[in-house]
Amino acid sequence: MIELKNVSKNYGQKQALKNVSLTIRPGEIFGLIGHNGAGKSTTIKALVSIIDPSAGEIWVDGEKLADNRLAIKNKIGYVPDSPNMFLRLTAIEYWNLMATAYSISSENYQSKLTTLLELFDMTENQYGVISSFSHGMRQKTFIIGALLSNPDIWVLDEPMTGLDPQASFDLKEMMKQHAAAGNIVLFSTHVLDTAQQICDHIAILKKGEVLYDGTIEDLQVQNENQSLETIYLKMAGRQPEESQSVTSSAETEGRG
Amino acid sequence: MRMKQIVELAKVNMIYANPQMIEKRRNKETKKGKASKVSAYMYLLGQNVLLFVMFLFLFGFMFSSIDLAQYPGMFTTFIATIILMALLQGFYLIFNLFYDSKDLAHYLPLPFKASEIFIAKVSVLIFMLLPYLVPVLILLVLLGIDAGKPLLLVLPGSIGSFLLIMAVVLAFSILLVHLITKFPLFENHKQGVITALYSLSSIGMVVSVYFLSNRATASMDTVGEVIPDMSVIPFLDVFHRIFLEPDNAAWFGILGWILVLAILSLIVFKVVVPSFYQAEQTTSVKPSSSSKKQAKNKNRGVAAQSTSSINQTLVKYNFGIIQDGTLMMQFLSSKLLLPLVVIGPTLFSGPELAMVPTLFWPVFLFSGLIYAFLTLNAVSIVGVIISLDRENFLYLKSLPFSMEQYLRQKFLFAFSIELILPAILAISLIVFFQVPLLFGVLFLMGLVVGTFVLSHYYFVRDYRLLDLEWQNLTELFTRGAGTWIQVISIFITVFFGVLAVVAVSLILLALPPLGQLVFSIAVVLIPLIVSAVVLFRYKKTFWKQFKE
Fold it and tell me: pLDDT (tens digit, 9 = 90+) per residue, B271-312?
């Protein structure tokens, strides 16, 4: 179980997270939804130890993150929002590093890698330098790296970005299977359809604050069965009619 | 600490510490169509071992002519110079590995300990620094032999002393770079400080090599004579005494070094190691601009920008795209190092420039032109500035503004950058050598004209060989011709340039007064006319295509 207790993150005067409290239970696919700059990536980065929260605590399986970083990192497979890391390495060099970081035995590594390479259609590109890959191929490289150790917790920051439809479908299926086996999948997305398809639980963030934390079904019941898009825009953005008027006036001004 | 993790991290860091070598190797593999059986890090290990052995023989030969046992002053001075060289190189390597490689943030979510990452980086650093410290080992071994000690004693003694010196240099360098990165000046002007560090380390290296080779040559030239020793450098003399007269004072000296190492190591492991990882954790996702800046921009609103502010934006943009460590290193070495190496010895040992007769005025204008050739080649900012745009270039083409204006501004920006350092160096040398004003002005005129024409050539060449999908700057530098061809062409330019200047001077001396006047006018006019023709041609062939 992951627990974020009143987590805040400040950058100077700017508050990126304001008292965020969330609980993610085993067996759940948990979706973080929000506009750009809502705090989705900051929440994820705090959980995977890339940043230190300015206040609050993060607990994973009953252990405080700040006191047990190494053990907790071992449980987490993380895919960053921007696949621009280790660009000077070849894909296989990167996966070797991952295998060593997570202390994967060479037998498990070989068999898991072969499966993932086939699944993501990356067998032919394993010796390519990451910097020469397209966005989608880089994304696949880091997804493979994150899943190699078969971690209990998957933390995926915008994982579908750049993936081809087949890879995207396969990943979604894998996320479902992983959660069904009693593990945790936490991911952030802009795509509400994806959230609606696979999430058991969502949190809607706006300007660093949690606006909603619960299931999509409950949210729709509370909002007279409106679509998730309409509910989301009502909570986090402009009203649909308002959006329409803004877009049409922008178009008119653009022509003028 | 886990060895397997450290070794794997060291492999990755080896690749990060030598991006250019790896890039070249991978390009070769791509051309051949098959991957090499030797892994990248093993290849780098092999290269460094080769360099180590080469340096071992080279410096062994260089120092073998000196009886180091008789010259403690020279021994300590050599050691100090080599330590200085290693420190300067250490700056560059430590900064590259620890602070500029930008890979530290990537390790944060992975289950590695900060100490494992640190030790992996330090082990790579030791390996990279080893060739630069090899001369210390040679000096210690030669000293032991000169002192008549048995080799069985000399070897472990030398290796032990060498490791001690190396460890102190390393710990000191790490601490120094750490302190530099903590200065507010560094935080606010990172690129400027890095450039200054690179320049300092490059210039320092050249000066050190000059000094070492001069002293070693001087001692070779005076075989059979008694040459005076230099003054003994305190703290370093313990390594001389421990081989010659290992008394209590010498052993206390060694103990002092061990104590210094212990203190430095303690500071490094207690202060530097935890803070370099933590610092990354607090800064890795900093917003791109301060809230003050944002507030300022907010007040400006979304009013349309004037042409002058677009120009300012483009200048800022061009400054942004040239801020790359490799580009800066290449820029500084071609603008400062190459001229200093080529013309430095001639200036210091050649004719007194303050006393040169007026008759030689055309030589100075001509020399200015040659100097421009010396400092500007394909490995330059103007030679890659369009390609540095990457995909922006194609996007900019789609925007409703004049590409001619855009490229002209880009050209003028790059030309100014190319001119500024050689001009500053030239003015400094003119002042230092008290060159008469007329000669100085003529030299600078030659430099400006030469740089302007050559900048055109390389700018047009960049457009002709345009590459917007490069991964590494070396790909841009080696377009059209390989690295060796470019190095050879630089040397040919230097050789013929110097030859031409000497030839012009000799002809002037040989001619009667009227002949001197006609020849002088010809020497000045011919290059100027050629320059004008070349520029006219670029106007008609290159710039015309962008007129809309």
Answer: 888 776 665 655 544 444 444 444 444 444 444 455 556 777
How far apart, in whole angstroms, are the C-alpha atoms of residue A144 and residue B267? Answer: 39
pLDDT tens, B153-164? 889 999 999 999
DSSP H or E run through A160: none
Inter-chain residue contact A98 with B110, CB threshold 8 Å = yes
| Residue A9 main-chain phi, psi, to 5 deg | -140, 125
A contact test, residue of B25, B108, B293 with most A CBs within 10 A: B108
Our CA-based measurement puts residue A7 at a distance from the nearest CA of chain B, in whole angstroms, of: 15
- Given this model, what pLDDT does residue B228 score? 66
Looking at beta carbons, which residues of chain A come within 8 Å of B110? 73, 98, 101-102
- The answer to whether position A103 is within a domain reads yes
Average pLDDT along chain B: 79
Residues in B touching A48 (Cβ below 8 Å): 108-109
- DSSP designation for A66: G
Nearest CA-CA partner of A235 in A209, A199, A201: A209
| Chain A residues in contact with chain B using a Cβ-Cβ cutoff of 8 Å | 11-14, 16, 41-42, 45, 48-52, 70, 73-74, 76, 78, 80, 85-86, 88-90, 93, 96-98, 100-103, 127, 129, 131-132
Q: How far is CA B235 from CA A147, B76, B146, B171, in A?
A: 55, 9, 21, 17
* Reported confidence tier of residue B47, pLDDT bands at 50, 70, 90: confident
Q: Among residues B53, B232, B254, B88, which one has the least CA distance to residue B164?
A: B254
pLDDT band at A203 (very low <50, low <70, confident <90, very high): very high
Q: Is the dihedral of CA B388, B533, B527, B368 positive or negative?
A: negative
Position A245 in a domain: no
Residue B260 reports pLDDT greater than 50: yes
For the domain that residue A198 is a member of, what is the CATH number? 3.40.50.300
CB–CB contact A51 B103 (8 Å) = no
The letter for the amino acid at B486 is Q
Three-state DSSP state, A33: strand
Closest CA to B453 of B419, B404, B500, B403: B419
Per the document, the length of chain B is: 548
Give the residues across from A67 on adjacent strands.
Answer: none
Domain of A53 in residue numbering reads as: 2-214
Q: What is the DSSP letter of B433?
A: T
Residue A208 has what DSSP assignment? Answer: T
Domain count, chain A: 1
Taking CA atoms, B84 is separated from A122, B173, B488, in Å, by 48, 10, 31
At residue A241 the predicted structure's pLDDT band, cuts being 50, 70 and 90, is: low
Query: What is the signed CA dihedral for A232, A234, A237, A243, rounded to 10 degrees?
Result: 120
| Strand A2-11 to A14-24 pairing | antiparallel
Q: How far apart are CA B528 and CA B369, in angstroms?
A: 10
**Where exactly are the structural domains of chain B?**
59-278, 319-546
Rounded distance between C-alpha atoms, residue B135 and residue B141, angstroms: 10
For residues A70 and B186, give the distance between their C-alpha atoms in angstroms, rounded to a whole number.
Answer: 31
Query: Does residue A66 belong to any structural domain of this protein?
Result: yes
CB contact under 8 A, A41 and B285: yes
Q: Tell me if B401 sits within 8 A of B422, measured CB to CB.
A: no
In Å, how far is A73's CA from the nearest CA of chain B? 5
Residue B310 vs residues B301, B306, B412: alpha-carbon distances, Å: 16, 6, 15
Q: What is the pLDDT of residue A256?
A: 44
Interface touch B112/A101, C-beta < 8 Å: yes
In angstroms, the CA A207 to CA A194 distance is 22
Note the residue count of chain A.
256
Q: Is residue A155 part of a domain?
A: yes
Rounded CA-CA distance B346/B394 in Å is 47
What DSSP string runs through B268-326?
A: IIIIIHHHHHHHHHHHTT--SS-HHHHHHHHHHTTPPPPHHHHHHHHHHHHHHHT--HH
